[in-house]
Design brief:
The complex is a heterodimer.
Chain A (H helix, E strand, L loop, with lengths): L3 E4 L2 E5 L4 E7 L5 E7 L6 E6 L5 E4 L2 E5 L5 E6 L8 E8 L7 E3 L3 E6 L1
Parallel strand pairs in A: 2-11
Antiparallel strand pairs in A: 1-3, 3-8, 4-5, 4-9, 6-7, 7-8, 9-10, 9-11
Chain B lengths: L3 E4 L2 E4 L5 E7 L6 E7 L5 E8 L5 E2 L8 E7 L2 E6 L8 E8 L7 E3 L3 E5 L1
Parallel strand pairs in B: 2-11
Antiparallel strand pairs in B: 1-3, 3-8, 4-5, 4-9, 5-6, 7-8, 9-10, 9-11
Classes of the chains: A mainly beta, B mainly beta.
Amino acid sequence: GQQVMQIPQYQHVQEGEDFTTYCNSSTTLSNIQWYKQRPGGHPVFLIQLVKSGEVKKQKRLTFQFGEAKKNSSLHITATQTTDVGTYFCAGLGSSNTGKLIFGQGTTLQVKP
Amino acid sequence: GAVVSQHPSWVICKSGTSVKIECRSLDFQATTMFWYRQFPKQSLMLMATSNEGSKATYEQGVEKDKFLINHASLTLSTLTVTSAHPEDSSFYICSASTGKWNQPQHFGDGTRLSIL
């Protein structure tokens, strides 16, 4: 079945350092969505990428969607302690069910 | 906007009890809602897709008779864990989209279920 792989599983950085998490899908995706889950919380929608090669920015966060629409990345510049949490990518397949296939998530720890 | 309310937040009960979890879209109508299960430090596992006015679609390996889903209206879906056992202890989260199938999902706060 369709799978979305996400690496790394964990990342510890010093505050101010950059951070990147990567996602790869086994199949072409209609779109890819990114969510952030704080410890003890629920996933919160960050962004959606639809077009091949699309790049979107939200302040210090940069999201990319690959040309083949099978991979994506999230890059955080100059991390802050408020960036702590688990970042999930979620791929939407070609069917019209709305089902998302979540990656395993990358848990980011930021040392002040 | 796009607020999803999930209740209760915490449930602790004895083995054999049935537990009902409610998921409500407060400021939009949700034709489709999704139920996930999340184990500690793991990803979200889709259990079923809840469709208003029709039967839920369950993922492979999810017992339909164990996890009963009812989507009675455009703003309410319920998940009932029947005859719960300790292995059913988990974090259950619902989500809903505001419109078309390819729109982002908005998640409830989740329900932490502990079966003694």
